[in-house]
């Protein structure tokens, strides 16, 4: 089983619709969670961190379910500019006792295309 | 802040040639990471450094790959000899360490990547 699993898509969604992605992780000791966005032929960029209580940033809502070991990303009122690949990222604390020594594991990404 | 700077942006080479990729992290960032991205395998961590010291190189595919960080502002990833299966986009990323273990404290900033094609 992969450490971080995502549905690769593609998701083709009409403009204005709501779309949701899930991501599952295998290590129950995982500490931090993020969603990164990657545009075609560009580098990944942080979209938002995912907090235990869930968090919202404009049209984007991220949620964490530790019991089921998944995180989700919800995009409301989708825009053409939301078309990208969304990468789920999970952080595990390394075995060395070092507050900076964390391993980030990336999912392979979910590709989203917003259709006019 | 110029961000993480990588060079070259694109490289096309023939099998057997040596390839050197370069990275300048963000000033003040003490962690530097090298990732490789392919369609099939996604983003894979190759190696990372803390304060110029390699911490984990378990992701380096084989002895043909080597990475160095001679100082806080420069790192190289070298492939010698290169093979067609090394074709990928290689990303360098950096971040700073923090005592704050909250989710927002360990954000990676990526460079634009080096797209390598080995013929």
Number of helices of chain A: 0
Number of strands of chain B: 11
Give the helix proportion of chain A (percent range): under 10%
- Work out the strand percent of chain A: over 45%
Gyration radius of chain A, in Å: 14 Å
**Based on the structure, what is the oligomeric state of the protein chains?**
heterodimer
Average pLDDT, all residues of chain A: 88
Structural class of chain A: mainly beta
Considering DSSP H and I runs of 4 or more, what fraction of the residues of chain B is helical? under 10%
Beta content of chain B comes to: over 45%
Uncertain runs of chain A are 95-99
How far apart are the termini of chain A? Answer: 37 Å
- pLDDT < 50 stretches of chain B: none
- The best one-word shape of chain A is globular
Give the H and E element order of chain A: EEEEEEEEEEE
Structural class from helices and strands of chain B? mainly beta
How many helices of chain B does DSSP assign?
Answer: 0
Q: Could you state the order of secondary-structure elements of chain B as H and E? A: EEEEEEEEEEE
Question: How many β-strand runs of chain A?
Answer: 11
Coarse morphology of chain B: globular
Largest interface: A-B, 28 and 26 residues
